[in-house]
Amino acid sequence: MENSRNPFLRFMNSLYYVLDAPVTFFREKIIEPNQKKYPYYHQKFRRVPTIDECYTDDYVCRYEANQQFLRDKDVENEILSILRQRYEHCNNEDPNQRGEEKCESMYEYYKDAAAAWFAKYGDLGPKPHVVHAFMKQKHRMVWERRHGPVGSGYKPEYKIKPDD
């Protein structure tokens, strides 16, 4: 309470509050309520329509769908990279003991994720486009309808009609 008796400190405190009060009020009442708060450090993009929902002459929609496709590809690349790093870390954890039994489930999970990644993005080249990926998906679906799941070895028997 000695600060309140000292006239110089009282003057400095009042000057501080005169300058600080409007700034604090503005920040707490206007800036912070209107600020976008992201739970992560990166920006969250809204989902845009996929390429099958775009009209053929809507170039903006096609561009947005392609950008969304490329962002999804980057995310799935990182997921695959993290799974690979986890498996390698599991194997390198104890050099005296082979971790094949210990890391087998992790390796299976990585293999499944890699197969799914290749089914979606494999053979698209260095600059993939969403239209090519969509056509790849369409061709795969047609193949599976005709021949069964890819890799199953199922070949339907076709009956040859005798010529009349």
From TrEMBL:
InterPro entries tied to this protein: NADH_UbQ_OxRdtase_su10 (IPR019377), NDUFB10 (IPR039993)
Principal location: mitochondrion
Lineage of source species: Eukaryota, Metazoa, Ecdysozoa, Arthropoda, Hexapoda
Location(s), subcellular: Mitochondrion inner membrane
PANTHER family in the record: NADH DEHYDROGENASE [UBIQUINONE] 1 BETA SUBCOMPLEX SUBUNIT 10, NADH-UBIQUINONE OXIDOREDUCTASE PDSW SUBUNIT
Keywords carried by this UniProt record: Electron transport, Membrane, Mitochondrion, Mitochondrion inner membrane, Respiratory chain, Transport
Parts of the chain that traverse the membrane: none
Name of protein: NADH dehydrogenase [ubiquinone] 1 beta subcomplex subunit 10
Species name: Ceratosolen solmsi marchali
Family: Belongs to the complex I NDUFB10 subunit family.
Membrane topology note: Peripheral membrane protein
Superkingdom of this protein's organism: Eukaryota
Entry GO CC: mitochondrial inner membrane; respiratory chain complex I
Pfam families linked: NDUFB10
